[in-house]
């Protein structure tokens, strides 16, 4: 079971600091080290194009279910979807870096019964996700990351 201190209302300064530090560490270590990566929670760095077409570095937690990777747009339980999820809807091609190994991916938005099945598995792994849905008042977007390894970048 995974606990989520970062989703507590009083954790905003910690969240902002860890995201900023993860972006710096990503540049300094080519994605080999991140703040979230030292926790027991699986972490990746999503490289996605923003609305202006610029590459943006997004540190995220992920879930591996039946050998596939999924990311959830929690946005720290806020009522709006995270920007990166809208960017993936517009441009699903992205890159994922896990401890320095970079992979080209296509993010596939899960919907309907497929989403519900994955959501149930996510909540079983990380029960705090049920609170995210309740606190945010929205259904978090869930993306499957379909990938093809392109090798390590040093």
From TrEMBL:
Gene3D superfamilies: Electron Transport, Fmn-binding Protein, Chain A. GO terms for cellular component: plasma membrane. It catalyses: oxidized coenzyme F420-(gamma-L-Glu)(n) + a quinol + H(+) = reduced coenzyme F420-(gamma-L-Glu)(n) + a quinone. GO terms for molecular function: coenzyme F420 binding; oxidoreductase activity. Transmembrane segments: none annotated. Belongs to the F420H(2)-dependent quinone reductase family. PANTHER family: F420H(2)-DEPENDENT QUINONE REDUCTASE RV1261C. This is Nitroreductase. It comes from Mycolicibacterium neoaurum VKM Ac-1815D. The lineage of its organism: Bacteria, Bacillati, Actinomycetota, Actinomycetes, Mycobacteriales.
């Amino acid at each position: 079971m995974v606990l989520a201190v970062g989703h507590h209302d009083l954790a905003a300064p910690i969240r902002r600091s860890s995201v900023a530090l993860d972006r710096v560490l990503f540049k300094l270590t080519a994605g080999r080290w991140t703040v979230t990566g030292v926790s027991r929670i699986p972490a990746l760095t999503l490289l996605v194009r923003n609305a202006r077409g610029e590459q943006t570095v997004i540190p995220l937690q992920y879930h591996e279910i039946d050998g596939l990777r999924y990311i959830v747009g929690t946005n720290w339980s806020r009522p709006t979807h995270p920007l990166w999820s809208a960017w993936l809807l517009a441009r699903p091609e992205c890159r994922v870096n896990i401890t320095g190994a970079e992979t080209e991916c296509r993010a596939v938005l899960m919907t309907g019964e497929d989403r519900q099945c994955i959501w149930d598995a996510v909540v079983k792994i990380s029960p705090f996700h049920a609170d995210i849905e309740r606190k945010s008042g929205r259904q978090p977007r869930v993306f499957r990351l379909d990938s093809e390894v392109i090798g390590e970048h040093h």
